[in-house]
Amino acid sequence: MKKIFVYAEKSGDSIHPVYYELLSRANLLSENMSEEVLLYGVLVGGNGGHLKELAASGADKVIQLTHSILDSENPECYSMALEELCRSEDPEIFLVGSTVEGTEIAPTLGVKLKTGVAAHCMDLRMDEGDVFVQVVPAFGGKVLGEILTPSHKPQIATVKPGLFQPDNAPSGAGETFSVHASSLDGYKAGIELVESKINESRLLPVEKAEIIVCGGFGVGEEGWPLLDKIASNFDRSAVGCTRPALDEGWTINENTMIGTSGKSVRPKVYLGFGISGAAHHVCGTSDADIVISVNHDENAEIFKTSDYKVVNDAGKVLSALIEQSSR
Ligand SMILES: Cc1cc2nc3c(=O)[nH]c(=O)nc-3n(C[C@H](O)[C@H](O)[C@H](O)COP(=O)(O)OP(=O)(O)OC[C@H]3O[C@@H](n4cnc5c(N)ncnc54)[C@H](O)[C@@H]3O)c2cc1C
């Protein structure tokens, strides 16, 4: 009997949607494995509400790791608890969302267990002979590489939210267990939660938005607040960014970065301002229905992957749109 673990990240009082996407893929993988497979939802900390939601998620078993130190999010302690669980349960595969939390936990756990981690996978499949194939973008997304970790367990893979559909999720109610993480008894964590703030913006997370207004380096610091104003004019909208905008500190929300190391998105309309069209970014927008790009360079690479091209200054177009919408 083999086990596939799926990390159940908490999102407020519910479970992050990426859990359902990964559970669905885990179910597909299990159908192509020669031995019987049990699917596990793994929750670290959390409350009764989380546990109840997970119990109905279709996983065969749900494990909640408990300890007072796990009440606040802490990648150091979370990965210690998960290490203890993996050593006792010996899962074959461990799937984790490529979220801010998941991208801290998965590699930390991989190092602790001395196993491989395939990060930001674009696809996961099971080949003949129970070979777990983890497909990752390489060379700036221009080629896809296949990563195999045949001799180390668990084989850990991270996948961005929104990449898989939750359509093949199993159904039914699983058994739930609470396990005390005894490795944390008496442990003094090196990382301390100082403050947590609730984001009160009415904008949606990029992976849920139907309209994304995305800014690149060409928008500049002074133009950045205009993106928010434009996006706020639409329902079900979000502001996205490229890597340089995040690096410059024009936005501090790394969850809004789109691309290889950020999110994959599927909006109805993606409006990009001052973005060059690097493969690392556009690989995250390839499922958008309509791409409209504004760039002052008429030969910009982004236009090759856009449905509509606007050759103009990003600031001027943003200001004109705001003026138009205030009429
Ligand atoms: C391993 C790795 C992972 C990465 N992951 C990501 C990722 O997930 N997401 C991501 O975005 N990047 C990622 N990057 C970085 C990526 O390769 C590019 O460097 C980045 O996407 C470029 O961002 P940009 O288009 O905003 O900036 P730039 O490349 O600097 O382009 C700015 C564009 O704006 C235009 N412009 C300038 N001024 C104006 C103006 N006034 N009006 C209109 N247009 C103007 C320019 O013509 C240019 O085309 C990654 C890189 C690596 C190595």
What does the model show?
The protein is α/β, with parallel strands linked by helices. It folds into 2 domains: 2-184, HUPs (Rossmann fold), CATH 3.40.50; 206-325, TPP-binding domain (Rossmann fold). It has helices spanning 17-31, 48-55, 75-89, 100-113, 220-232, 243-248, 279-282, 314-325; strands spanning 2-7, 10-11, 14-15, 37-44, 61-66, 93-97, 117-121, 123-127, 131-138, 143-147, 155-159, 175-180, 211-215, 237-241, 269-273, 290-295, 308-311. The longest helix has 15 residues, at 17-31. The model has no long low-confidence stretch (mean pLDDT 93). Bound molecules: flavin-adenine dinucleotide. Flavin-adenine dinucleotide (FAD) is lined by residues 216-218, 242-245, 257-262, 274-276, 278, 280-281, 294-297, 300, 313-315. Flavin-adenine dinucleotide (FAD) binds next to helix 6, helix 7, strand 16 and helix 8.
Query: What can be said about the biggest beta sheet?
Result: 7 strands, parallel
**Would you identify the CATH H-level superfamily of the largest domain?**
HUPs
Bin the strand percentage: 25-35%
Question: What is the arithmetic mean of pLDDT?
Answer: 93
Task: List segments where confidence is low: pLDDT < 50 over at least 5 consecutive residues.
Answer: none
Please provide the count of β strands.
17
From the alpha carbons, calculate the radius of gyration and give it in angstroms.
Answer: 21 Å
Shape: globular
What is the CATH topology assignment of the largest domain? Rossmann fold
Number of helices: 8
Instruction: Specify the helix fraction band.
Output: 25-40%
- In total, how many domains does the architecture comprise? 2
In which order are the strands of the major sheet placed? 7-11-6-1-4-5-12
CATH C-level class of the largest domain is Alpha Beta
- Distance N terminus to C terminus? 65 Å
* SSE pattern: EEEHEHEHEHEEEEEEEHEHEHEEH
Secondary structure category: alpha/beta
CATH architecture of the largest domain: 3-Layer(aba) Sandwich
Could you say which small molecules are bound to this protein? flavin-adenine dinucleotide
